[in-house]
Amino acid sequence: MDLPNFGVDTAPYLTYGAKSGKWKHVENKVKRDILLGELVIDLESYSTGWGKMGEGQAPQWIMNPNRSIFGAIPSTELDKDGKPAWKQGIRVTLFSPSTFGGDGIASFDTTGFGARTGIFEILQAFAAHPGRGPGLVPVVKYVGNKEHGAGQKATTIPQFEIVKFIARPAA
Length: 171
Fold this sequence. Notes:
By secondary structure, the protein is mostly beta strands. Helices cover 12% and strands 42% of the residues.
């Protein structure tokens, strides 16, 4: 199955609250809290790039031609807090009909340090896992958060573990 790579604000997507460690599912601009459990992460077709996320506006992305190498920052523009508007990010497709409803597909696009780190950590575990093979995707379980930093820079990093591998779900 080709899990679609969304990137438009009308497609279902997840958000992660780095301070709270909570997940939300957003579909048709309706946000709802969810308890993230087991889900499939399409780690074969993730992408990386520079993202610009602004409150109340669709995210803008400039994707890397090679997902392992970040190109130059696209702009020196600053956000409302005086920080760089463009940040390194990752985009990955998730699948869990029981959690997301409908066709079970949601996108997770993030430039947040904690969320990005959590995805990169499960990517490393995936790359080294002996159960990995052609046509298989990992079922991962969200197992909580790891605290990182202190004060203004405090955040949480979502933690995942690989439960098993399954054949790529049919579209």
